[in-house]
Amino acid sequence: MRECKIQKNTSACPCTYEPCPRKGICCECIQYHWSHHELPACFFPAEVEKTYDRSLQKFLSLYKNSE
Hints:
The chain is mainly α and about 70 residues long. It is about 45% helix and about 0% strand.
């Protein structure tokens, strides 16, 4: 099994929610957000990520409106 590169992942993670216990552990982050019908911060532009609206609807609206 591959080793998780938590330190490398953390330095590249755009999530602004500081007390997040999953920061840098991408597989846990994706599982957590998907279980809440959301996507992680790395799927959103910075200005949208700061709103903490990580819903699928928000994600789709961003790309639907960009066409």
